[in-house]
C-alpha cells in the first residue's frame, strides 16, 4: 500500500475534520484551543450551516471565541450551560496511559475548567504528540504575576528548569486571565499525580498543564488516516 506523505498541518486537519463528525444535533460542545482545534471548528461550522445543526459551543479562549463567533457557531459560557456533552481539544503530549500535557497555547486554565465540566473529552492530535512517558514537552504552569519571581526561584531550586513564557514581541506572555506562564523543562515526569498535587498546593499557582484522568478518547492523525484510541 502506498502511504501519502503528509505534513503536520495536514494531519491536524485530518483529525480536526474527523472530530467534527462526532458532534450531534442538540449537543453542547466544548471547543478547545490551538491549531488542530482550529481545523475542527472550521469543519464544525460548515456542518452547522449545511446540516442546520442546533449546537451550543463553550469556548476555552478568546482566540477560539473569535473564530467560532465569526463562523456563526452559537456560544455560551461554561456558567450558562447545565452540561457539556463533549469537549474536543488538542494536546501537547499524550502518554501511553492517556495522561496529557496541555497549555502550549496558554489556554490551560479555561481548557481545564471546560474539560472537568464535560461528560466526555476527546483529544485530537497528530502522531508526533504521542510519547511513552510525559515530560518531553515543557509543562506550563499558570501563575499570578504577584510573587511569580519567587515561584520561579522555587522551581529553579527544585531542578525544574523554569522559563517564563514570552509572547511574539519578547514580552512576558499574559493569559486570557492576565496571568503568566512558567514552563518547566522536566524532560521526564515519573509521577505525574504527585507533581500535579505538588504544583496545585503551591500558593500563587493558578493551574498547571497536567491533564490527568480526564480524556476518554484520542483521535490520532497518521498518514494512512485517523486512528481512534479509547
Ligand atoms: C492550548 C493547548 C493546545 O490544545 C495544545 O497546545 C495543542 O495545540 P496544537 O493543536 O496547536 O498543536 O493546550 O493551550
TrEMBL record:
Protein name according to UniProt: Ribose-5-phosphate isomerase A
UniProt xrefs under InterPro entries: NagB/RpiA_transferase-like, Ribose5P_isomerase_typA_subgr, Ribose5P_isomerase_type_A
Signal peptide span: none
Keyword list, A-Z: Isomerase
GO cellular component labels: cytosol
GO molecular-function terms, A-Z: ribose-5-phosphate isomerase activity
Annotated pathway: Carbohydrate degradation; pentose phosphate pathway; D-ribose 5-phosphate from D-ribulose 5-phosphate (non-oxidative stage): step 1/1
Residues where substrate binds: 33-36, 89-92, 102-105, 129
Catalytic machinery residues: 111
EC number in record: 5.3.1.6
Record text on subunit structure and interactions: Homodimer.
Biological processes per GO annotation: D-ribose metabolic process; pentose-phosphate shunt, non-oxidative branch
UniProt catalytic activity: aldehydo-D-ribose 5-phosphate = D-ribulose 5-phosphate
Function recorded in the entry: Catalyzes the reversible conversion of ribose-5-phosphate to ribulose 5-phosphate.
Domain of life: Bacteria
UniProt keyword Isomerase, yes or no: yes
Amino acid at each position: 500500500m502506498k502511504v501519502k506523505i503528509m505534513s503536520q498541518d495536514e494531519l491536524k486537519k485530518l483529525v480536526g475534520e474527523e472530530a467534527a463528525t462526532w458532534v450531534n444535533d442538540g449537543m453542547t460542545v466544548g471547543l478547545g484551543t490551538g491549531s488542530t482545534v482550529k481545523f475542527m471548528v472550521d469543519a464544525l461550522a460548515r456542518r452547522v450551516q449545511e446540516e442546520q445543526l442546533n449546537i451550543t459551543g463553550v469556548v476555552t479562549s478568546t482566540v477560539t471565541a473569535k473564530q467560532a463567533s465569526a463562523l456563526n457557531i452559537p456560544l455560551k459560557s461554561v456558567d450558562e450551560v447545565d452540561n457539556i456533552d463533549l469537549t474536543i481539544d488538542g494536546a501537547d503530549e499524550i502518554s501511553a496511559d492517556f495522561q496529557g500535557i496541555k497549555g502550549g497555547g496558554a489556554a490551560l486554565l479555561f481548557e481545564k475548567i471546560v474539560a472537568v465540566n464535560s461528560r466526555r473529552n476527546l483529544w485530537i492530535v497528530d502522531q508526533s504528540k504521542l510519547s511513552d512517558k510525559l515530560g518531553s514537552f515543557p509543562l506550563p504552569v499558570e501563575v499570578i504575576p504577584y510573587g511569580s519571581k519567587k515561584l520561579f526561584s522555587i522551581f529553579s531550586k527544585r531542578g525544574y528548569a523554569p522559563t517564563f513564557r514570552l509572547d511574539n514581541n519578547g514580552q512576558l506572555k499574559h493569559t486570557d486571565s492576565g496571568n503568566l506562564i512558567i514552563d518547566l523543562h522536566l524532560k521526564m515526569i515519573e509521577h505525574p499525580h504527585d507533581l500535579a498535587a505538588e504544583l496545585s498546593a503551591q500558593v500563587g499557582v493558578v493551574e498547571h498543564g497536567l491533564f490527568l484522568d480526564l480524556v476518554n478518547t484520542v483521535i490520532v492523525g497518521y498518514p494512512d488516516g485517523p486512528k481512534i484510541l479509547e
